[in-house]
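Dear all,

This email documents one entry for the complex benchmark we are building for the journal club exercise. For each entry we list the sequence lines for every component of the assembly. Then comes the predicted three-dimensional structure of the complex as a token string, followed by one or two observations. Please use this as the template for your own entries, and keep the labels exactly as they appear.
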Amino acid sequence: MVDYLIYVILPQVLHGLVWGTVIAFIALGLTIIFGLMDIVNFAHGEYYMVGAFMGYTVMSVIPNFWIAVPVAVVAVALLGLFTEFVLFRRLYGRDPIFHLLLTFGLGMMFREAAQLIWGADTRRIEAPVTATIEFIGMVYPVYRLLILGIGICVILLIWYVLRYTSVGAKIRAVAQDRTMAWALGIRVPVIYTSVFMCGVALAGFAGVLMSPINFVYPTMGIDVILRAFIVVVIGGLGNIMGALLASLMIGEIEALASIWISPTIAETLVFIILIITMIVRPAGLFGKAER
Amino acid sequence: MGKLNSGSNITRVILFHAVVLAVLAILPLFLSTYHQKLAVEAIILSVFAMSLDLVMGYAGIATFGHAAFFGIGGYAMGVMLKFLFPSIWLGLILAGFCSAVLALFVGVVSIRAKGIYFAILTLAFAEVVYRIIFHSYNTPLGGSDGLVGVPTPMLGLGPFEINLKSTTNFYWVAVAFAYLSYLVCKLIVSSPFGSILSGIRENENRVPFLGFNVKWSKVTAFVIAGAFAGFSGAMFTAFKSYADTEQLSFLLSGKVIVMDLIGGIGTLIGPMIGAVVITVFESIISTHFAAHNIIIGAIFVAVVIFMPKGFLGLFAKKDRNE
Amino acid sequence: MKRLLAVALIVVSAVLFCFQAHAANEIVVGCISDLTGTYAALSKQQVDAVNMAVDEINKSGGVLGKKMRVIVEDSATSVSLGTQKLERLILNEKVDFVIPPTTSSAVLAMMPVALKHNKLMMVTLAQSMKITGENKNKVTFRCFANGEITAKPQVKWMMKNLGKKYYIIGADYAWPRSTAEVYTKFLKEAGAELIGETWFPLGNKDFAPYFGKIKAAKPEVLLMICAGNDAVSLASQVKQYGLAKQMKLAADGSFVSADIIKAHGNNADGIIIADFYVDTLNTPENKTFVKNYLARTKELPSKMALSSYEGVMWVAQAIKQAGSTDTDKVVKALEGSTYKGPQGSKKMDPVSHQSSLDVYMIKIENGKYKVMEKAN
């Protein structure tokens, strides 16, 4: 019994924790952007993909992972700036369904453009750390633990900025009442643009960090977007803490469920959890009030 | 074309319908067989786009999982023709029934959610349906390989039988199918029930004070739309001789919304035109350009930003200016 | 109202647009390829190889005194677009035969269409078991391997050299499932023990949760059945979590196919596959083929490229033999015919419409294929 707990359950809990952080990473930007501007960014996975490709491009010139990461993040932020300025800006205040459609089309364009620029082949980025450690009878790659660490740091940083800085206070003010914030002299468009940039930059960051595990190819965004979407909705759209908890929950459920049931059923189960959550608590498991 | 109906000149309306039908009827004489096939596909998809307009344009609820009903209808027709009984009519009945039941379930369960939340719920339901069928390996549905080799039977019409293996015949049947579907939907939206739907779209909170049940009106609209999506999915399968999981995918759900937007929602005829335009355009452009998805994606983006009311919206505005 | 008519007119003229005439003294090859989407990389190889075959045929004087011409259509990994393109090629471009795309579901949906229009289809990429054998139709042939051709010799070799307890992990859709069925059949016949199976959803990213179960089952051989990006991720995680220390690794050929071998890097080292072609095959015909292909595309040919090349060449040979491009005659000529190409000589089974193929046992070493022995 104890053996079963240590050698079967515990490793799965750890897998779930790490994978949950990974999902949270991708989902964070999505939920921040929605929380502030009501944009459901279906192209979020494509910013993630661009981040990974940027990292790959830098790595092929300067083979240093820790240079590739910031360059990729900045590049995606600039792409975010450009798209926000040219496209999203025109849709503020319209029904979120329009954003969903806009980003749906944008995602198509990005995928195809990436294939034109970089080709359709799967590329790889070497992990900067290839060591593994032994732990309760199983081998664990250090790089995954590193991602867990970086993920926790980033999440704490975002939480700190939003909670305890004046910029954070402004952002929260705009999220709560746009018009009122305007009246108080907060430059709302600047806040919008910068938050959008940060949100997609987070996706780019996740993309380049994940690429040693997930590899780099034009359709990689589609593979992650639905799951990121699910945790954001379960956590309550726009709720950062909710997205975080939901990510960990989904990571754990999928990892633990795979001990007993087929992974395919576990994946479908996640969708069913989403449906039940939305029916029981339409504003998400950790949402405050009905919107 | 609400404008036309509300006018007093009924003969004009009838004349207009007759002219359009006549043009559509003689069209295949000028088309090659391939273009006829493309036209049939476009016409069948136009009914699918129109069915979405019932919920999106009239009841004002956005759904992102409409492909589920189209796909289920397709599979129902496939199962009927291949395994049960070779009759298009029975296939259509089964398809409409299955799609309507699914729509009833989804509708009842999720109608409480509003706006984007409803859209996401329908997407989740559609994904569950997609996954179940995608993984139904070793069942007659064929899993990811799709249900292939669906036979094309004769279409019995009282004493007559129409050979649907001829593309031209199928074209006329498709035109009749689309026209009848349009008439039925037009009747629905012009009825008192249609007015309730429009009321819900304009101001959901006031409708209950007029003594109408918002929830059940919405669910009814959703079920009707689901049934019509099922019909068109069934016709699609009957025409293409296969049902595939692609018909259930969220990419199709997104595409059909854009078809509606391009045509102009809340007009019934607009989405039909939108579907035809997108289908034909996609076929032409994918032959001539390697990176066709960039262009199609750009059209999506442009439509959403510049003409949320669609082509018909553009025309309507001009009318007012004249 | 007038505007509606105007729109209708525009649509009609758009449909009428793009008509093309077909010159009588040429043979037209329709190549439908998934140039956008998941299979884009290997589909590009398909198009390159088909073009290369046609250029070589034209250089040596064409077939029956006619030049050959290729028309490429993108089916974008979509079934509906695939069937639509097939109809366009047959009805409007009047192609003489068709090389269909990678997606099995699209090929399966195309087969009845090709049969209806009586047009030959030479399948060079799709792997579904349903394409040939019991479910074959008159006009569809395949010169690519299906699961059965490679699994049989591979199982024999594995039983002799690797062990008797097997665990299968694969992607949960029709092709890996049916391939696994074939493996299971041969494994049972050979007296092996199948101690477990794990099926993960397509596009899965994290395999670590399944490894505990696999390790606990203590198989001697882990047999992996998936392709593309799933295979790349799975191989890298199998390596990271050190599964190779506890069991031998084997896979279906597509797990390390040429389009992803570069992405694998060293992660796939030690994996045993059985396959019908690798570019390092040591025959003079293959060396010429590899040299020409490399000069043309700057990449090494995959088995997909080889198969597409041989498919066109084989049909051209059959057309020559039949003395006509008439489908019935070419079908007759193809059935039971033999063809000798870069990969070796092969025979088209007249009943199943599946070509025989030489199969080699291959081990991945340093990210490269190492042919160990001929297996059948």
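Observations: The longest strand of chain A covers residues 132-135. Chain A touches chain B through 41 residues (CB under 8 Å).
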